[in-house]
Amino acid sequence: MSVRNLTPAEVQAALDSGAIHLIDVREVYEYERVHVPGSVNLPLSTFHPAELPQDAKEIIFMCAGGVRSLRAIEAAQAFGLTADSHLAPGINGWIAEGLPVEA
Q: Where is the chain membrane-spanning (predicted)?
């Protein structure tokens, strides 16, 4: 499995440029409590790679701490997609960096 571990600053820059889809694979209740503005919630518990946006933008996965996002990458690659990037420290690392969140 090919994986790119991205920092919160790298993901923020990509979001700002409009070049990515940030897919949050945490459960709905986690997402509703706090999430990154502009992210899309596709919980890993019901995740299927066919649900991912199909356009030229890069897919970047995220979760709470980087474990579920790796599982989403694995599922996407097994499905034949080239998705290989995730927010390595998850939303916990995002918050620790003081980056914006919504509730």
A: none
The pTM of the full predicted model, rounded to 2 decimals, is: 0.95
Q: Which residue has the tokens 């995730």?
A: 86
72: containing domain: 4-96
Residue 74 inside a domain? The answer is yes
* Amino acid making up residue 39: S
Tell me the CATH number at 75: 3.40.250.10
Q: Compute the average pLDDT of residues 30-53.
A: 96
Asked if the structure places residue 101 within a domain, the reply is no
The candidate with the shortest Cα–Cα distance to 48, out of 21, 30, 23, is 23
Residue tagged 């440029």 (tokens): 17
- Token pair in block for residue 70: 């790796």
